[in-house]
Amino acid sequence: MYWLFKSEPAEFGIEDLAAADRQTTRWDQIRNYQARNFIRDSIALGDQVFFYHSQCRPTGIAGLAQVVSAPYPDPTQFDPHHDYFDPKSTTNSPRWYSVDIQLVRVFNTFLPLSVIRQQPELQQMCLLRQGRLSVQPVTHAEAEHLLNLAREVAESDRRS
DNA sequence: GCCAACGTTGGC
DNA sequence: GCCAACGTTGGC
Q1: Mean pLDDT of the residues in chain A
Q2: How far is the CA of A94 from the C1' of C2 (A)?
Q3: DSSP string covering A14-49
Q4: pLDDT tens column, A13-42
Q5: Of the candidates A44, A17, A39, which has an alpha carbon nearest to the alpha carbon of residue A28?
Q6: Is the distance between the Cβ of A8 and the closest atom of strand B smaller than 7 Å?
Q7: By the 8 A CB rule, do A126 and A138 touch?
Q8: A126 touches strand C (CB under 7 A)
């Protein structure tokens, strides 16, 4: 399956993923139930992840990653010194979940939200229809379209 | 900085 | 369980 993960590049961008040990990081600190349900119940090892930069200019998709772990309890919820500590969470019934992701590739050319918006085939994307969701599913058809689009944008960028 | 959309909290 | 108030996300 395909997913889209949002991240603020000022906090952790795709360059940070590229520079990380084994180009892998734990996707943690997700504290939204809808996003949690996707991680806990639907995301699986080997799934592909569009890495999206939010809260920046321009916003858009910066590259591709893949899921390299099964879902597991987010350790930050158990750490009383952590900002994302959740006193209502216990190891027997954890509330929040993480997965590990590894970089697949940084797109040659950034794929801006404005370009995604222009695509008639992508109008049903969760990204365009619902804001405020940092982990969201992408259909197979949407994923193929996004990957083709990224290739086209990169080629036109190279020609100019 | 503004504001729309949405989630969460808490009084009742 | 309802719903108003408030907080957060996130594009612009």
Answers
A1: 93
A2: 29
A3: HHHHHHSGGGEEEE-----HHHHHIIIII--TT-EE
A4: 999 999 999 999 999 999 999 999 999 999
A5: A39
A6: no
A7: yes
A8: no
- Residues 141-160 of A, Cβ under 7 A from nucleic strand C: none
**A81 contact to strand B (CB, 7 A limit):** no
- CA-nearest of A109, A120, A119 to A151 is A109
Q: With a 7 Å cutoff on the CB, does A88 touch strand B?
A: no
Degrees to nearest 5, angle at CA A44 with A41 and A47: 130
- 3-class DSSP state for residue A156? helix
A54 touches strand C (CB under 7 A): yes
CB A136 within 8 A of CB A3: yes
CA dist A15 and A52 (Å) reads: 12
- pTM for this predicted structure: 0.95
